[in-house]
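Input:
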Amino acid sequence: MEVKDIVNEKNLVYKPSELLTGATFNFCPGCGHGTVVRMIMEIVEEMGIQGDTIGISPVGCSVLLYDFYNIDVIQAAHGRATAVATGVKRVLPEKFVFTYQGDGDLAAIGTGETIHTCNRGENIAIIYINNGTYGMTGGQMAPTTIPGMKTSTSPLGRNVETMGYPLRITDLVAGLEGTYYVTRQSVHTAAAVRKTKRAIRTAFENQKLNKGTSFVEVVSSCNSGWKMTPLQANQWMEENMFPYYPLGDLKANGELIKK
Ligand SMILES: Cc1ncc(C[n+]2csc(CCOP(=O)(O)OP(=O)(O)O)c2C)c(N)n1
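Output:
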């Protein structure tokens, strides 16, 4: 058997979405952003809504969404993505509008916007990467940094007595009447990637049905910021982040999931 017998079109198991421009991602190898960013365009392609989808990007590692996507993307100032999305959706209610944000953006400077957008039940999809740190600016402590976790601004580990407790913003928004679907997922295994893709697809489908806010948190590693190899970071995430941020749906069809 020759290489050409193996590497050919019929044996292809994965092909990037046509809606990706082909621009090289700026994400570090091993980071979950790249996986989530590409799957959103797969969903848009599968739903056939390229011309009807508007993305809102944040500041942070995913700021350059408009370079990667062959759809309209507006870049919002720090934390303001859901406010911008609100404006866009109200002016263009037929469009699919989603925000894509990091935890520093969504749960620190954007806490107010996030809470009020969800409380108003804006009919948008909010997709949010929780990597427990401000990735792009050097791995500083974020609201989501877990107790004891070392970051560049908490080198001895987060001390809750002086630095406060981590903010489980996903649990918070699940309790608001405006949210219809709230889930926490990850992309560290192939099975987890498939589940996250289903969750984001559900968020888009809910929007078509005018159901209110869908909120998808993706717990992700930041191997550069955490100063670990991608494998170590995934393992650390499973052992330390998931107990604090348990995966699964928090709210479905407008009803809180009883645990
Ligand atoms: C208005 C504004 N304030 C602050 C910054 C600086 N800044 C850029 S990225 C970033 C941190 C982003 O962290 P996070 O939202 O957790 O996303 P990640 O990079 O981890 O994906 C900050 C503070 C900025 N670019 N614009």
